[in-house]
């Protein structure tokens, strides 16, 4: 409780620097070289039961590695953008943020940090949202014959559902209303997800703005990687760590426990064993040797 969260964060940052100096566990299916900060996702989160802590988490999707968290107001748009993006300032990274972070100041700060962004659009930027929808739908009618565009379609079957995703990215029109205030904006995109489960078909359409050049494969990878923070980080914190059930109220204590949870989650995901997170946590309590493996990031 007496440990200041800022001091804890500084120690965490030092540990991340040590990670950057050694090989990290890469996806088994990948045959390419990954940079630690290639895709960085930021997403807001609150501990639902206690309503005690609202934070923005930052997640390196390819490695299952937490890069940090920033405590903020329950409405992140009221927080200083520098706080929301403080942990995202990684040169060369692609930073993805859900709609709450689609703000001009945040986009500007990302570009000034020599990174790129892919930002979701929803009602909080209604004018821009409608403008992007209109621009994409207009070109879609002509099969994007008059603009620089790129498309990609993927299909997968898992968890009792079949899903087809269509990614379309095009250069941002110079006539797009409200374009000028968005620093670095080069492209706009849409993702159409068609899902069939138990014979029932559902569709979802999501729109994005980005500082990336037109490349649907790269755009698709960034969008899909963003959900790693929800599936691999927040879901694990909810289910494995039961963070939503926390009743901690003291400010420093709740923030430090949130840091501890993310630190240990990152350590466990770096361990090469195939056991579940639950079993790995239990094994740390059962075996000092296994605990040392997790803490050292290696097998003994």
Automatic annotation (TrEMBL):
Q: Name one GO biological process term.
A: DNA transposition
InterPro entries per the record? ISAs1_transpos (IPR047647), Transposase_11 (IPR002559), Transposase_11-like (IPR051698)
Q: Which GO terms describe its molecular function?
A: DNA binding; transposase activity
- Report the residue ranges that make up the Transposase IS4-like domain in this protein: 47-265
Q: What Pfam families does the database record attribute to this sequence?
A: DDE_Tnp_1
Could you tell me which PANTHER family the record lists for this protein? H REPEAT-ASSOCIATED PREDICTED TRANSPOSASE, PROTEIN YBFL-RELATED
Descriptive protein name: ISAs1 family transposase
Question: Source species, please?
Answer: Singulisphaera sp. Ch08
Task: Please spell out the taxonomic lineage of the organism that makes this protein.
Answer: Bacteria, Pseudomonadati, Planctomycetota, Planctomycetia, Isosphaerales
């Amino acid at each position: 409780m007496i440990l200041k969260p800022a001091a804890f964060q500084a120690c965490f940052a030092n540990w991340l620097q040590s990670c950057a100096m050694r090989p990290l566990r890469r996806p088994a299916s990948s045959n390419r070289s990954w940079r630690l900060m290639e895709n960085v996702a930021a997403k807001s989160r609150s501990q639902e039961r206690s309503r005690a802590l609202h934070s923005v988490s930052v997640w390196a999707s390819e490695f299952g590695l937490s890069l940090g968290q920033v405590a903020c107001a329950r409405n992140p748009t009221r927080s200083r953008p520098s706080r929301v993006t403080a942990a995202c300032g990684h040169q060369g990274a692609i930073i993805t943020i859900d709609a709450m972070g689609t703000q001009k100041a945040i986009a500007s700060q990302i570009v000034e940090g020599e990174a790129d962004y892919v930002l979701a659009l929803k009602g909080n930027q209604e004018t821009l949202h409608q403008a992007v929808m209109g621009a994409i739908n207009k070109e879609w009618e002509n099969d994007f014959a008059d603009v620089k565009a790129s498309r990609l379609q993927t299909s997968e079957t898992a968890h009792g559902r079949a899903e087809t995703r269509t990614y379309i990215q095009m250069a941002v029109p110079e006539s797009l209303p409200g374009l000028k205030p968005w620093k670095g904006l080069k492209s706009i995109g849409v993702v159409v997800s068609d899902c069939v489960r138990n014979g029932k078909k559902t569709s979802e359409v999501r729109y994005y703005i980005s500082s990336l050049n037109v490349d649907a494969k790269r755009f698709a990878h960034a969008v899909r990687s963003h959900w790693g923070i929800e599936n691999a980080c927040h879901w694990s914190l909810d289910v494995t760590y039961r963070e939503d059930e926390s009743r901690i109220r003291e400010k420093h204590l709740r923030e430090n426990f949130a840091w501890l949870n993310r630190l240990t989650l990152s350590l466990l995901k770096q361990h090469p064993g195939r056991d579940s997170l639950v079993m790995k946590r239990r094994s740390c309590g059962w075996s000092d040797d296994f605990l040392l493996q997790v803490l050292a990031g290696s097998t003994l």
